[in-house]
Amino acid sequence: MEHTYDFGLVGLGVMGRNFILNVADNGFKAFGNDLDTEKVNALIEEGGDTNRVNASTDLNTFVNALVRPRKIMLLVPAGKVVDIVIESLLPHLDHDDIIIDGGNSFFTDTDRREAYLQEKGIHFFGAGVSGGAKGARFGPSIMPGGNRDAYQHVKPIFEAVAAKSHGEPCVAYLGPKSAGNYVKMVHNGIEYGLMQLTSEIYDLLKKGGDFSNELLHQTYAKWNSGRLQSFLVEITAEIFEQKDDLSDGNLIDMILDKAKQKGTGKWTSQNAMDLGIPVPSIDIAVSMREISALKEERIKADALYNRPEVTLMNKATLGGLAEKSLFFSFIITYAQGLHQLSDASKEYGYELELAEIAKIWRAGCIIRAGLLGDIMQAFQEDSSLTNLLLSPRFVEKIQDTVDAARELVSYAAQNGIPVPGLSNSLTYFDSYTSSRLPLNLIQAQRDYFGSHTYERIDREGTFHTEW
User: Fold this and answer.
1) pLDDT, tens digit, for every residue of 270-290?
2) pLDDT at 186 over 80
3) Where do the H-state alpha helices sit in 119-263?
4) Does residue 2 surpass a pLDDT of 80?
5) Strands 71-74 and 53-56
6) Options 29, 39, 71, 184, the catalytic residue
7) Which of 312, 327, 413, 445 has the most CB atoms around its CB within 10 Å?
């Protein structure tokens, strides 16, 4: 058994077990490690053939089973656990062995770990993995970054296990340092935005059009067969069909309206502010999860204030506006996330190719969508493109849908239905496409109370006035 397995993986939870089985299914011998004996035994049993996939709780046995340079992937919770696992591995490793962090680690942690391990002769890189448990088992989207030479040793394995779109693997070397973890972070930020938007449209259809769960299912399923084709729209359609085992109704109506989060959306929003890049559709998606957690306060507040009587809209009319509005706001959310990636690439030296990122997001990951084909082509046509809204490919798509978004935001406001994701997307569009904004007044105010100076529209330089 010594030095015979091609790939090692630490952390045999659902994601880890599924990923290592995927590796084995694609012709590579894989060996797993976990402190939990039950998880080790479960993998061995499911693998069926220990010559193909094996596991152990003993680190020495695990490390000695791997072909050199050892390729060891970690699928453990982000944070201190990653550092603990790295330290436990170090005494067993040799020069040029490779450790891959496949979790949602914060990108600066990846930079720190890479520098630390480089001093010890060990290669380290982060690889974002998206697609959930099913994706890990049958084909995720993988976003690796770090040492390019070290990645070459893992490339055949990752390309074999990744999801395929048009016959192409949804994995690519993205850039040096923490590029992979950073791209996965922004992927998750976009995910937050798309999920918020999808839920707002559901709320509008239900409250404003009295859509039944069956009609909601039919509507989202129809959208998924058109230009809104995407994983999130697809599973939303299926969710409305799910019956509840504990009551006579549908499960969706019994789920508490408190959404949780693991932090990647917040990281995206915080870092965008650090970079000076506006991502309001993502920002508000994070805030809405925080507002949703205030359930008891929301119930009290609801009792204190009168809400507008909702005026029902014709179902066909509302459905048409909703489809256009969701498509419009999906484009805006992708545009914001990709704008952040463009700026971060310059700031952190990632050398990101946005067309390549869109390409590997087309299958396997949570934000996969038909729209990504057009996004990929937009960046292929203009590699210097910083924002999708500047691409001729997207002008007509926006012009065809923005009026519907205006009408729906207006209707929602008049009827007291919160649509912060949709309204923020519309405001972002109107602001980004305005050649003149009222921020001249803010500059005047700043100079008035703080002598912060201002620039003029008719001459160069900075100016101050004694107001």
Assistant:
1) 999 999 999 999 999 999 999
2) yes
3) 132-138, 148-161, 179-209, 213-224, 231-239
4) no
5) unpaired
6) 184
7) 327
Query: Is 222 an active-site residue?
Result: no
Residue with tokens 């989060």: 261
H-helix or E-strand spanning residue 82: helix 80-89
Which of 29, 71, 191, 324 does the annotation list as catalytic? 191
DSSP state of 119: T
Q: What is the CATH number of domain 7-177?
A: 3.40.50.720
Q: Where are the domains of the chain?
A: 7-177, 184-432, 436-467
> Which CATH number does 184-432 carry?
1.10.1040.10
User: Helices marked H in 210-314 — which ranges?
Assistant: 213-224, 231-239, 264-275, 280-292, 295-304
Q: Where are the alpha helices (DSSP H) in 100-175?
A: 107-118, 132-138, 148-161
Residue 191 annotated as catalytic: yes
Fold of 436-467: 1.20.5
By three-state DSSP, how is residue 319 classified? Answer: helix
CA 244, CA 380: separation in Å to the nearest integer?
A: 46
> Is residue 367 within 8 Å of 141, Cβ to Cβ?
no
C-alpha to C-alpha distance for 411 and 433, rounded to whole angstroms = 23
